[in-house]
Amino acid sequence: KLLVREATPADTPQILHFINELAIYEKQAHEVETNAAMIQDTLFDADEKAFCLICEIDGQAVGFAIYFFNYSTWLGKYGIYLEDLYVSPEHRGKGAGRALLIHIAKIATANNCGRFEWSVLDWNTPSIEFYKSLGAREMSDWRIYRVDGDALQALAEKE
User: Fold this and answer.
1) Would you give the end-to-end CA distance of the chain in angstroms?
2) pLDDT digits (tens, 9 = 90+) for 118-143
3) Separation CA 50–CA 80 (nearest Å)
4) Do 62 and 11 touch, CB atoms closer than 8 A?
5) Burial letters for 43-71: b for 16+ Cβ neighbours within 10 Å, e otherwise?
6) How crowded is residue 112: how many other Cβ atoms within 10 Å of its Cβ?
């Protein structure tokens, strides 16, 4: 039986495991800086700004999703940004990813959100095809920019 539920602090080791598996899949394992304490502090503190779902099959955690609310000035509505969606390879094709996306779509509609969006690596054809099969469309006219690490610190120190 497939079940999507909100993560609890007890899920922290499993969440960290999924994050590391995802990083390996995306060929970015060297980029992971988080640890169990950081996950605990950010996903489960009183001032949480991101939310985590766990998907289980027959009581076994097989995947997760982390999302947060953003805002569209053009729509005048909140939206949801999916930071991570991951299902362990041995459990793919069983509906876990679909169930996680549907669950978040329901959260979005219940909160009158105007959009639900995420990023995908351009080489990740299986995911791209999966997202398209659910009605997602590529926003090819937009580019993602990022400032992090030393560049973020330098920007924050500018006058």
Assistant:
1) 56
2) 999 999 999 999 999 999 999 989 98
3) 10
4) no
5) bbeeeeeebbbbbbbeeebbbbbbbeeee
6) 8
- Residue from 25, 78, 131, 145 carrying the catalytic annotation: 131
How far are the Cα atoms of 45, 98, 104 from residue 87, in angstroms, in the given order?
Answer: 25, 10, 15
Q: Give every CB contact of residue 37 below 8 A, 6+ residues apart in sequence.
A: none
Integer angstrom CA distances of residue 78 from 28, 75, 113, 141: 30, 8, 5, 21
How do residues 65-112 score in pLDDT, each as one tens digit?
Answer: 999 999 999 999 999 999 999 999 999 999 999 999 999 999 999 999
- The yes-or-no answer on residue 86 being catalytic is no
Encode the chain in three state secondary structure. Answer: CEEEEECCHHHHHHHHHHHHHHHHHCCCHHHCCCCHHHHHHHHCCCCCCCEEEEEEECCEEEEEEEEEEEEECCCCEEEEEEEEEEECHHHCCCCHHHHHHHHHHHHHHHCCCCEEEECCCCCCHHHHHHHHHCCCCCCCCCCCCCCCHHHHHHHHCCC
Q: Starting at the earlier edge strand, list the strands of the sheet with 77-87.
A: 2-6, 51-57, 60-72, 77-87, 115-118
Q: What is the CA radius of gyration of the chain?
A: 16
